[in-house]
Structure formats: structure tokens, C-alpha cells
Amino acid sequence: MEKINVTVKNESGLHARPASLFVKEAGKFESEIFIVKDDKEVNGKSIMGVMSLGAKSGTELTIKAEGSDAKEALEALEQLIKSNFGE
Predict the structure, then answer these.
(1) Which parts form a coiled-coil structure per UniProt (predicted)?
(2) What is the CATH number assigned to the segment(s) 2-86?
(3) What is the domain partition of the chain in residue ranges?
(4) Angle at Cα 27 formed by Cα 78 and Cα 48, nearest 5°?
(5) Angle 38-33-80 (CA atoms, 0-180°, nearest 5)?
(6) 15, 47, 72, 78: which one is catalytic?
(7) How many CA atoms lie less than 13 Å away from 48 in the CB half-sphere?
(8) Which of 8, 21, 49, 65 has the most other CB atoms within 10 Å of its CB?
(9) Each residue of 32-73: pLDDT tens digit?
(10) Does 31 participate in catalysis according to the annotation?
């Protein structure tokens, strides 16, 4: 399993639009993708799961991926977060 740590930096955090962008990007990969915040782990391909984290600006998250394209998935998702979801 591959994993990275990221910090949500866009002002509004992982609200509906960024969460949907994250899920859409995660869905492009075969690997299983999970997001961990504190002790809660959710499926990174589930819009309800991602939004249930309530990740605000400044929140640290761990993104984990397992599968044949795990490394590529993490790179793409990290880029998406670093770009502040285009906000």
C-alpha cells in the first residue's frame, strides 16, 4: 500500500465541489483509494464518505492507495489538492 500526507489548503476545505472533483479523479484509477483523517478512514471514491470527513482548510489528511496504479493515483490526487481544486 502506498500513502501520502497532504494538507487541505483551499479556503472552503473539502466541501461539495472539491469533494466531487476528488472522487471523480480517484475514479479514474483501478486502485482502492482511502482518505484518513484522525481515526476515520473513508473510501476515496465515495462522495458521501469524502464529505463526511468535514475536512476544513488546514486539515491534514493521509491518502492511501492499493493496486496496480496506486502510485499514479496518489500523484494525481496530490496534484489536485495542491492546485486547491482550481479555486
Answers:
(1) none
(2) 3.30.1340.10
(3) 2-86
(4) 90
(5) 85
(6) 15
(7) 0
(8) 65
(9) 999 999 999 999 999 999 999 999 999 999 999 999 999 999
(10) no
Q: Calculate ∠ Cα 42-46-47, nearest 5°.
A: 110
Q: What is the pTM of this model?
A: 0.95
Provide the Cα torsion 85, 11, 35, 81; round to 10°: 30
Contact 33, 65 (CB under 8 A): yes
Residue 11 CA to residue 86 CA, distance in Å, equals 12
Written as nine digits, the cell of 28 is 479514474
The residues that bridge with 63 in the sheet, in sequence order, are 4, 35
How, if at all, do strands 40-43 and 32-37 pair?
A: antiparallel
Note the residue count of the chain: 87
User: What does the alpha-carbon distance between residue 80 and residue 22 come to, in Å, rounded to a whole number?
Assistant: 7
